Structures
1.
Amino acid sequence: MPNDVDVSRLRQEILAKVGEYYRLAHASQGQNAPFVPGETFVNYGGRVYDERELQAGVEAILDFWLTDGPRAEAFSDDLEAYLGLKHILTVNSGSSGNLVAMTTLRSAQLDRPLQAGDEVITPAATFPTTVAPIVQNGLIPVFVDCKVGTYNIDVDLLEAGLSDRTRAVFVPHILGNPVEMDAVMAFAAAHGLYVIEDTCDALGSVYDGKPCGTFGHLATFSFYPAHHITTGEGGAVGTNDSRLHHIAHTIRDWGRDCWCDYRSDRNGECGHRFDWEIPGLGEPYDHRYYFTEIGYNLKMTDVQAAIGIPQIAKLESFVAARKRNFRVLYEGLLPYQDRLILPKWSPKADPAWFAFTLAVPETAPFTRRELNDYLKERKIETRYLFAGNILHQPGYANIPHRVATPLTETDRVLKSALFIGVYPGMDDARLDYMLQAFEDFLA
Ligand SMILES: Cc1ncc(COP(=O)(O)O)c(C=O)c1O
């Protein structure tokens, strides 16, 4: 018989050792190593963690639940509390979140589901897996232009995207910069449209006093390491609508209708597990094998969720650090506005920046490539802005789509934008180093 006292003691010893291991093997290694100008690579993003994430992961392994379990539920509860949303469904990536959200709106269980060939308005300057689930669901993405500076969909162009097949708007808050959601929601309400907010880059961003991800019918989140919190791979779908949540849950879990938590009771808390009527069968069937959707398996594991719990406890401080780092870069680059287009945001927005985006104006005496090569030489990590214009990406060249407005600004993003980091792992030494590099390049 296992002795509970011994088990508990051993567990505490293991966790203490994990803490010790963190301090030896992680605390001053890799990204945590002292910064040596010109030698240390300045990442644009990365995991920011301490012994608590390692201990949480090890505890989850000791419990060995492995699949979606009690920690996924606790992590969902924390996210619901942080966002003030009724439901959070954890998934294995932000891309899976987008797939689940879009597929949910195709469900025959809805009164007015989206039908094949219906249109979804979205920007072409975007991350590919915002567009992919529109196409994968037999829907038509309708592209309207964005704005250089905010890099978000231009909400003044939404009406131009409208047709008698328009059923939804799918808006990403690009790089943490909130879309003008009052305009999006007013447009959607006027035309009876669904709204999905891709909040993968914007956990912690606020628009008009309300968290991004709480305006639309559904919202998605990513916990990939460069994002505001990390579970390694991971994501979530949020909603205040219990019906949409149930359908999203079903789509995530193989298409299974059953919603019971079987952890405490093998027969399910509903008490009717084996009483479900399948039409035409003449006898009840097991609700656990009762499928109301053509689904996937996109669940987050308990080990991933375990790591998310100490991460979300740090979210406020991460958001504050991102804002501060952004401000330092913004103020430092203000003198170069004639040669660099600095980020812009709505007066109603309080962005928890994912990154710091710059565009090189056509009038600049250098190209984006030259700036990028210079930063690369100085070991400062850059990224171009996702797909730029998704229609220029080979995988998307032949998708069924409609271009509703000229994509002039989108093509400027494709040709001139790049971003650098503001993540909480950046300290004053790195920020000063980056500003010095810009000064050296631009002087
Ligand atoms: C706007 C946006 N949507 C979706 C995703 C996909 O998230 P994931 O990498 O977790 O699949 C990303 C990824 O960074 C993103 O930036």
2.
Amino acid sequence: MLLEVRDLDVVYGHTHAVRSLSLQVDRGEIVTVLGANGAGKTSLLKALQGTVRPQRGEVRFQGSPVLRQSAAWRVAHGLAMVPEGRQIFVSLTVHENLLMGAYTRRDDPAREIEAIYERFPNLARRRDMPASVLSGGEQQMLAIGRALLSKPVLMMLDEPSLGLSPLLVQALFALLRDLHRDGLSILLVEQNTHMALATAHRAYVLELGRLVLEGDARSLASDPRMTAAYLGSTKRS
Ligand SMILES: Nc1ncnc2c1ncn2[C@@H]1O[C@H](COP(=O)(O)OP(=O)(O)O)[C@@H](O)[C@H]1O
Ligand SMILES: [Mg+2]
């Protein structure tokens, strides 16, 4: 088991964002977490990343408990996050953004950054330009490239397809499949249910912080409860 989450609760004041949530990611899996706005998806990822302190629960990554560890420790131990909205530094150059992603590395990151440029030629061509000139799709590539520089074992992505054109969404999911083929395990939060279920091995569906469905992605894609649960929670938000 690569990642094990048990009985996780995230609470903000009067909002119970994540309720007694348990889930797992095995090595080599793509697992997706689905749910409407406000379902608790980002809160879950932030708790795993270490930027939100859960009220209760246990998280083990590669066998080690992580909830008492800093966010930096988690990155250094192979848990990387591509946050919602990309959160790149628009006034820094593409190259400077990538250097920020390499900050946990003790070795010289130059060769690793070149490998990122080989994977993303659009970034290479714009390496000395401010990140603000990048298109939405390129900014998402930069955010993913930056996360890759920490040499992750598990990459968590928070709604990476948000705001991308259908063509770029296809390219993004193709990239995730490539990264998976190269050995990366992936925990993917999405509202694009169709693409996420077509790409992932397993899925969890959250509704108002609670796990309402889980299973094999292929069978959930054609499960009538899936549509009911998902559309039901969309209507309420
Ligand atoms: N920093 C915060 N302070 C207070 N409430 C929050 C905060 N972040 C999220 N929430 C609330 O927690 C719930 C879950 O939010 P979130 O985890 O962002 O869901 P999702 O990512 O699925 O849209 C929502 O009701 C949201 O309004
Ligand atoms: Mg969110």
